[in-house]
Design a protein that fits this description.
Blueprint: H1 6-17, E1 22-27, H2 30-38, E2 44-46, H3 48-56, H4 66-79, E3 84-87, H5 95-107, E4 112-116, E5 130-132, E6 137-139, H6 147-164, E7 169-174, H7 184-196, E8 201-205, H8 210-218, E9 224-227, H9 229-232, H10 247-253, E10 257-261, H11 265-282, H12 285-296, H13 309-321, H14 332-342
Parallel strand pairs: 1-2, 1-10, 2-3, 3-4, 4-7, 7-8, 8-9
Antiparallel strand pairs: 5-6
Helix pairs in contact: 2-4, 5-6
Length: 343
């Protein structure tokens, strides 16, 4: 393993510094990163929420540890050649742990990470939990750490970055829009403080409308982008779905990354659920129909299930280092019969 992945961090920096927006799919599994790379995307985002959903089977609640997300990020980095950056939640929870965690993330080959400004446990407020229809779960509004504490975390992250690889990207995420007592103005105020602390990018989470997204982006001097349920799936004040802004509109607004956490995988989970329910209720008819449809699908349209070129490497290693196969004209059954006959 190289000390640092300078090729990935340099490429990531170039993507951030060039004009325009970049569509960034996200997930938490190596196969998701492989599919994104094969589809032509330039960057992959590792989602903490999806880690909770796919690895732990729980809502995004801050249960993962620094060790876990460092190790699983390594597996994703190893699976692709495009830069990978990761959600790290609070990155360990204090300045010392942030420093160590960023160091570890650089060593495993990530190109960047984002650090958020919420208290743990996540989603807990004095008002208690409430049903969030967008999340599909009980959730509360996050409590924020103080600006001073988050600035300290970011400065520790920047110090670790500068010691190992100045191209590693530190992204400061603020949840101030949807935090307890939060607002657009508070989010902008915090973003500007995080700029001063040395963050390379700002990530706003939880803006309610595209107009709010525009205002937040316009307030930043460094590259910035938005995330959150209403950013990906906008709704009106009554909760009805509305059309998503186009890529061109987001680019014009200054959105550096058009981040779509779980691009393609929300549909996959829904499809899996529908098949499970259908088979339980009606048997294998729906699977049989799918089986025939897939059998007729042209190979060029089928999703790659893994990195097939890796088999060539495995075969080459086998041929070079394993002893040759012992061949014989006598079948295993004949040899076994002969052994029993002479025993």
């Amino acid at each position: 393993m190289p000390l640092v992945n300078r090729e990935a961090t340099s490429t990531f920096r170039d993507i951030i510094n060039r004009p325009g927006s970049t569509i960034v799919p996200g997930g938490s599994l190596p196969i998701q990163a492989v599919l994104a790379e094969r589809a032509g995307y330039e960057v992959f985002h590792v989602s903490g929420g999806f880690y909770h959903n796919y690895y732990l089977g729980v809502p995004d609640s801050g249960l993962w540890t620094s060790t876990e997300f460092v190790e699983y990020a390594r597996k994703i980095v190893d699976a692709v050649d495009i830069p990978v950056f990761s959600d790290t939640d609070v990155c360990g929870g204090n300045a010392i742990n942030v420093y160590r965690t960023v160091t570890d993330l650089i060593h495993v080959g990530l190109a960047g990470c984002h650090i958020e400004d919420v208290e743990y446990p996540k989603g807990i407020t004095k008002a208690g939990l409430k049903w969030n229809p967008l999340r599909g779960e009980m959730h509360g509004d996050e409590l924020l750490v103080s600006v001073e504490e988050q600035v300290g975390w970011l400065m520790a992250a920047v110090a670790a970055r500068d010691e190992l690889d100045p191209n590693f990207v530190i992204i400061a995420r603020t949840d101030a829009r949807t935090s307890h007592g939060g607002s657009l103005e508070l989010a902008i105020e915090r973003a500007q403080a995080y700029e001063e602390a040395g963050a390379d990018m700002i990530m706003f989470d939880g803006m309610r409308t595209f107009d709010e997204c525009r205002a937040a982006l316009a307030a930043c001097r460094i590259p910035a982008f938005n995330s959150g349920e209403l950013v990906q799936f906008p709704r009106d004040e009554q909760g009805n779905p509305v059309d998503m802004p186009t890529v061109e509109e987001k680019t014009a607004a200054g959105e550096k990354f058009i981040l779509w956490v779980g691009l393609g995988w929300q549909n996959a989970v829904q499809t899996a659920w529908e098949q499970l329910v259908a088979v339980k209720k009606d048997g294998f008819g729906v699977i049989n129909e799918w089986h025939h449809t897939e059998a007729r699908r042209p190979r060029s349209e089928k999703a790659p299930r893994y990195r097939t070129e890796y088999m060539e490497k495995i075969i080459a290693v086998q041929q070079k280092y394993l002893p040759p196969q012992i061949t014989t004209t006598t079948s295993d059954h004949e040899a076994e019969d002969r052994t029993h006959a002479t025993a």
